[in-house]
Specification:
It is built from 13 helices and 16 strands. It is α+β, with helices and mostly antiparallel strands and 475 residues long. One of its GO terms (molecular function) is acyltransferase activity, transferring groups other than amino-acyl groups.
Length: 475
Amino acid sequence: MTNSKSSVKIVEVSRVKPSSHAKELCLPLTYFDTFALKVPPIQLVHFYKLPSYSTSDFFYLAILPKLKQSLSLALLHYLPLAGNIHWPSNAPKPFLLYSPNSNDGVSVTVAESSNGDFDRLIANHEIHESSNDFYALVPDQLMTCDDIAAILSLQITLFLPHQGFSIGYMAHHTVLDGVSMIMFNNAWAYLCKQINSSSSLPPELTPFYDRNCIKDPSGLDLIYLNNWIAKTNTKSLKNWQKPNPDSLARATFELTRQDIKKLRENVLLLSNKSDKGKQQVLHLSSFVISYAYAATCLVKVKGEKCRRKVGLAIPINCRKRVDPPLPATYLGNCGATHVGFGDATKFMDENGVVFAAELLSDMVKSLDHQVLLRGTEAETKLLNLFSISQDSQVELISAGGYPNFGSNGSDFGWGNRNKAELLLSKAGDICLFGSNDRSGRVEINLALKKHEMDTFATLFINGLRPAVPRLTPKL
């Protein structure tokens, strides 16, 4: 990977530890954790505009100390994030350990950007020809060896002279899923705003991390672990290598509430599945409509080069699906992926958005009656995903996040975030965020090759113009 840090100056690197009274904590990894053992880390950037009265001195004397102090308080509640994953050579599987007597804590890098255009970085429909400007805003890497790996690392970057600042997260996917990541971010923000009055958290931000509540009678934890060892040919905590993302262009596209309403009305008008005689009700949430529209544009970008089948992958929060159910505030990896398939020609058809919405609707509705996989199906789930991702006949598109994912509660005391950017490592994957102003807008993060991004932008924008109603209803 090229040196993405050339656009920022590193001011300091320090380690923030949990505030006093933290005790040693050791947690086993569950099968959800070992399933994600070598998945690339979560890389997320939140952007914040500074108040008009602020200066660089205000950032360093007021904002930065509060961020660090509140982070220390947050880590006392979210103690697992201050530790490391360990995998000694004589241990059958890794475990999570926080030790107050060691150097455990979270690495925090403070940086400055003097040539980064803050307003351009947070603008929607702005195509960035390189991903370097974004990767410069997250830590270079998590400390990872064969037998030990850090869980969380942060970078706080000031955009000079006083345009704004960003908080970049890099988190090991074995310990954190998207729900846990957002919950921690919101808890940190809450404590930062309350720093002079309270160090306690409300129930909805208080983490629960008792791993004993997740039952695993089939030994899926070791089955998934052995799948990874066989796949990578090594017993190591290092991540599975992914293609270099530096050459990918990045952009965030926006669907307004009105755009989503118009697309939903057209799907209802044109879908056979919404026929009154069939008594079928489509599930057309903002997530389904936004994902269907973006996926259809992506397939059309590929055109004749697209593979025969398209797989749409959606994330599943499994906290309520395990037996017994887990609290909504469970801190850990507790997600799964559900994949649905359709012929590429159906996506490229004039009514491609309708087909994609029907497919996603069926997938989401099937989850209402679906329990977690068991037996042989569960044991082969990871191998099946390996197979799908490498199938030359399948164009796999994955979506992360949800429009109502809770990421709009991240006000540290100087205003809500202006933008969230998930740095996706695979071209063509997308991430959906709800707008921070509660307007009902959905923001779609995307990375593609530059010429593909230009085509996607044209399809995306033109498809929202009055041409949409010209679609021909199905007979």
